[in-house]
């Protein structure tokens, strides 16, 4: 898994480099996950937390869960606050116009005894009591597609919109800090901008060079296409994830940043945000508000800030240059729209991977494969297919890349088991090396332990495949088949070790950083080693134990990065060097090789180029200030 950070922007890729169990299982639903054990819902096959009694997707009650030990579901009017929530506290909760009902709805379309909510067979149902206008339950396609029911009943799930007569109600499972809040979504196209006559266009404001926009008078506006969710946290803190659903970028927010986000309504100026923040938290924190606004703008979720220019305002050449730079920095070929295909695969067979037999199989095959591989080392030689020739090498490559595909599918199936989206997948270049990836950044709306499970699923499955091949190599009596299986197992074991490497932004690093609650472990450790440690030593301040650990990790991460760069240079020089030297004379051949490696490693050296540019700019600014101050002193 590759993890990219830019400030607080989080973008996650599962990068490769579960095999289904060989038997069919039914109604075996225990799996490992957050805080111990998850249960697969036997109705929809998605994971249900053990600290919650119902599946949030279909409303099915978790097996062996006692309902009276948990908060009951809720009914509320759309758009209402918590004060208007009606609690469903009984096995039969009646709704009607008369005062004897548990929920009284004074509306002419509602009968005196209209409907009731009952719990049976492990789920909740809305049942019509022979009313005149019946009931409807929104199936997710919109209220116009909800079928009217008279004298029947319909199953309820979390977020179901029910219509008692013409009165809309929302049926919800109450959230806890461990589960997180419901995701608030503003789809693309559903704008939140204020009417045009009430706003000043940033382009018009920037047109007059003599009248730049006043920062406090700027009117920030939300762009459409975002999702906001309180993510589960086991430390009692409020943490939020804000997503740009158009680009897939994510932000990690605290409670105060979420407050600023909620205050942006397209009419309030920065000054209004400042006073709202003062009223809420008792401090005038303009730098904090400006930082939050810049952070929202960095993922293209806020417009109207001073100096901000939209893409449409740039010239053709500036837009082309920006697109070329982004392509060189990302270097990927991705396919969108994979979520539906992966969803169908999970519903049909993927959920089997998360049953107790599948996990038991993983726990048995991995150590058995390591033992078999240890004994195979004397029986077979590395890089020797025992006379299989080119066909043996081709089989090794084909099976290896097939295993890498299964590796990525394991990541994708783990994401789907938590009910989250797989945005896209494809191939990318990282430090000059090719990788396949599955974009799992939607897991930032889940808990940290769910991200650990997703990160480890790929390399563990790769180790399971390698173990099975190693056992096969030990068991077979054919020297050619055994040698081929041994070579594939060796390659997959190397791949597993590489993915578990915590020094590079891969699966092992992601699992480690989430387990330690340290999402920017590499960046902060490298920054402390290069700057903070020496600053503390100059001040004669002894680093803490945590800072010494960050120093050690930062040093190892820097050495690992340079080692990876050197490996990439050697690999690409070996791949293209011979071909170029045969086709082009020597002076030009070296230039072509250097240019090719420079393009392949562009994301690496471009970061150092930007840092050097910033340093030179700061030195130039200091020199100009000294020149301006010299006449004043004279």
Automatic annotation (TrEMBL):
CDD domains: FHA (cd00060), S2P-M50 (cd05709). InterPro entries: Cell_Proc_Reg/RNA_Proc, FHA_dom, SMAD_FHA_dom_sf. Residues 93-138 form the FHA domain. It holds the Pfam family FHA. The chain crosses the membrane at residues 353-375, 395-415, 452-474, 480-500, 548-572, 588-609. SMART domains: FHA. PROSITE patterns: FHA_DOMAIN (PS50006). Signal peptide: none annotated. Keywords: Membrane, Phosphoprotein, Transmembrane, Transmembrane helix. This is FHA domain-containing protein.
């Amino acid at each position: 898994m590759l993890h990219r950070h830019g400030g607080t922007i989080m973008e996650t890729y599962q990068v490769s480099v579960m095999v289904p169990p060989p038997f069919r299982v039914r109604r075996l639903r225990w799996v490992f996950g957050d805080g111990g054990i998850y249960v697969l819902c036997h109705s929809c096959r998605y994971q249900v937390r053990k600290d919650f009694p119902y599946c949030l997707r279909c409303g099915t009650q978790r097996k062996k869960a006692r309902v009276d030990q948990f908060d009951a579901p809720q009914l509320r009017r759309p758009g209402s606050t918590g004060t208007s929530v009606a609690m469903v506290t009984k096995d039969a909760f009646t709704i009607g116009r008369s005062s004897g009902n548990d929920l009284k709805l004074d509306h002419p379309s509602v009968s005196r005894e209209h409907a009731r909510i009952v719990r049976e067979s492990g789920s909740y149902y809305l049942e019509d009591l022979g009313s005149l206008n019946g009931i409807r339950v929104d199936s997710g396609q919109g209220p116009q597609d909800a079928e009217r029911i008279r004298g029947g009943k319909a199953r309820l799930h979390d977020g179901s919109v029910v219509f008692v007569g013409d009165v809309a109600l929302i049926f919800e499972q109450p959230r806890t800090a461990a589960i997180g809040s419901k995701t608030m979504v503003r789809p693309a196209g559903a704008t939140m901008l204020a009417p045009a006559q009430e706003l000043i266009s940033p382009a018009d404001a920037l047109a007059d060079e003599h009248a730049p926009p006043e920062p406090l008078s700027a009117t920030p506006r939300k762009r459409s296409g975002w999702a906001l969710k309180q993510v589960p946290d086991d430390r009692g803190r409020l943490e939020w994830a804000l997503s740009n659903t158009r680009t897939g970028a994510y932000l990690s927010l605290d409670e105060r940043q979420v407050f600023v986000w909620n205050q942006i309504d397209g009419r309030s100026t920065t000054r209004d945000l400042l006073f709202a923040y003062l009223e809420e938290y008792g401090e005038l924190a303009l730098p904090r508000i400006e930082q939050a606004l810049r952070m929202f703008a960095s993922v293209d979720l806020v417009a109207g800030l001073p100096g901000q220019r939209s893409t449409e305002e740039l010239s053709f050449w500036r837009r082309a240059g920006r697109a070329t730079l982004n392509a060189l920095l990302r270097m990927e070929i991705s396919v969108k729209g994979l979520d539906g295909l992966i969803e169908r695969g999970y519903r049909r067979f993927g959920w089997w991977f998360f049953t107790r037999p599948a996990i038991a199989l993983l726990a048995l095959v991995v150590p058995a494969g390591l033992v078999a591989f240890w004994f195979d080392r004397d029986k077979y030689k590395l890089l020797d297919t025992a006379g299989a020739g080119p066909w043996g090498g081709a089989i090794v490559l084909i099976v290896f890349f097939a295993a890498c595909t299964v590796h990525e599918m394991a990541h994708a199936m783990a994401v789907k088991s938590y009910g989250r989206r797989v945005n896209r997948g494809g191939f990318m270049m990282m430090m000059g090396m090719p990788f396949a990836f599955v974009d799992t950044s939607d897991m930032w709306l889940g808990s940290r332990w769910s991200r650990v499970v997703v990160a480890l699923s790929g390399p563990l499955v790769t180790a399971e495949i390698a173990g099975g091949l190693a056992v096969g190599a030990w068991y077979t009596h054919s020297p050619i088949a055994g040698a081929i299986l041994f070579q594939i197992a060796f390659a997959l074991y190397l791949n597993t070790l590489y993915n578990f490497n915590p020094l590079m932004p891969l699966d092992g690093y992601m699992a480690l950083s989430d387990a330690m609650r340290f999402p920017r472990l590499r960046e902060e450790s490298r920054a402390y080693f290069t700057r903070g440690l020496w600053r503390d030593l100059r001040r004669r301040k002894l680093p803490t134990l945590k800072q010494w650990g960050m120093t050690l990790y930062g040093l190892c991460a820097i050495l690992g990065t340079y080692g990876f760069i050197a490996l990439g240079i050697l690999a690409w020089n070996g791949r293209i060097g011979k071909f170029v030297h045969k086709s082009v004379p020597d002076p030009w051949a070296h230039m072509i090789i250097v240019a090719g490696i420079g393009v392949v490693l562009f994301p690496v050296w471009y970061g150092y180029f930007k840092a050097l540019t910033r340093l030179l700019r700061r030195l130039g600014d200091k020199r100009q200030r000294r020149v301006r101050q010299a006449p004043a002193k004279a």
